[in-house]
Amino acid sequence: PPTAASHHWFVGDGMVHGLRLQGGQALWYRNRWVRSTAVSQALGEPEAPGPRHFSDTVNTNVIGHAGKTWALVEAGGYPVQLGDELQTVAHDNFGGSLRGSFTAHAHRGPATGELHGICYEATNPDAIRHVVVGTDGRVRREEPIAVKHGPSVHDCMITAQHVLVLDLPVTFSLPTLVAGYSFPYIWNPNHRARVGVLKKDAPGSSIVWCDVDPCYVFHPCNAFETPDGRITLDVVAHATMFADSKLGPNADASAFERWTIDPAARTVVRRVIDASPQEFPRPDERLLGQPYRYAYCAGLQREQGGAFVGSSQLLRHDLATGERTVHDFGPGRHVGEFVFEPRQPGAAEDDGWLMGLVVNAATQTTDFVILDAQRFSAAPQAVVHLPHRVPAGFHGNWVPTAG
């Protein structure tokens, strides 16, 4: 059995937390375990229905697509379809249309409504896959791309014409696995750091690889093509990742950066926009793959000895003026990922709401906070008080009710 020393943030069973808002009221908050076989057995329940792939632990992200709510994980289990009250409906490989693993981060192209993801198998070090899920909830493309060393590709980004692949120096380590660690990926300075540029419907063999200085990116924010043939990609970049810690991500040195990719020269130029520690960058996703102005990031604490702990600050980057604005929730508060939702269809890029969870460490309670994006530093528009601590998780999204 695994020892406590071999536990890792990324491999435990997933619990989904949700809040239902309607008519200006919070109707309910609840949390539910995503039913892996192990969870079902522990709870004395029948095994959840649906096919399995490699692992059935699903613990990283929740999205809405094709009229359904999906829990997601990378490199292992199929997506899990969730019901309206967060219950596990079934493990579901998009109705049998997905052959391999999926991703924790699938990005919706605003023009088509299709999901794009870069997916990898923990058991195959030589290939990753560009997967496209149509608006009908079925996979229409699962294109292999050749790689080496089994890189951990946590996320990707799309532009109007391309998908961008982050092939960076965190790779599979057999010695780490043999030593009993449940997350066998470590920093690998011998792995070439590069960004792949692939036309959305082109063969994987046509990908253009562009060298970049070694670093690791969990989460890009947005990307877009520029008239000079280059591509702008905004990311949170970490100097290293999993170089020392076997428990989870280190946050010693992360920054919000703008990368200029030149596919003709096969180069990437990195420029730091904000050097303060931060993560979970999000744009107005109506502008995904297009020029945009505002990015929102959760601050990370500096004084935690490299641990990945949220600070009290939510950050807004104005990419037109270079201005950095802060909403500080106060001492002892820890922010998570905040997401933007426009006030109405067609609203301006900053005309809407920012929503996320803020933990109060002193009282072990949590606030679900809604900010007016146009009054970013002002008092919240609304707060829902939860009488317990929602554990620091990874990702969340606003999923509107159909119709």
Please outline what is shown here:
The protein has helices at residues 37-42, 174-178; strands at residues 15-22, 25-33, 61-65, 68-72, 80-82, 88-91, 107-108, 115-120, 127-133, 139-146, 156-158, 162-167, 170-172, 185-187, 194-199, 208-211, 220-225, 231-238, 254-262, 267-274, 278-282, 294-300, 310-318, 324-328, 333-335, 339-342, 352-360, 365-372, 382-386. The protein has 403 residues and is mainly β. Strand 4 (68-72) and strand 5 form a beta hairpin.
Explain the overall architecture:
- This protein has 403 residues and is mainly beta.
- The chain is built from 2 helices and 29 strands.
- Strands 25, 26, 27, 28 and 29 form a 5-stranded antiparallel sheet that branches.
- β8 and β9 form a beta hairpin.
- The radius of gyration is 20 Å and the shape is globular.
Radius of gyration, CA atoms, in whole angstroms: 20 Å
Low-confidence region ranges: none
Q: Which whole number gives the mean pLDDT?
A: 93
Query: What is the tally of helical segments?
Result: 2
Separation, N- and C-terminal Cα atoms: 48 Å
Give the topology.
Elements: E1 15-22, E2 25-33, H1 37-42, E3 61-65, E4 68-72, E5 80-82, E6 88-91, E7 107-108, E8 115-120, E9 127-133, E10 139-146, E11 156-158, E12 162-167, E13 170-172, H2 174-178, E14 185-187, E15 194-199, E16 208-211, E17 220-225, E18 231-238, E19 254-262, E20 267-274, E21 278-282, E22 294-300, E23 310-318, E24 324-328, E25 333-335, E26 339-342, E27 352-360, E28 365-372, E29 382-386
Antiparallel strand pairs: 1-2, 3-4, 4-5, 5-6, 7-8, 8-9, 9-10, 11-12, 12-15, 13-14, 15-16, 17-18, 18-19, 19-20, 21-22, 22-23, 23-24, 25-27, 26-27, 27-28, 28-29
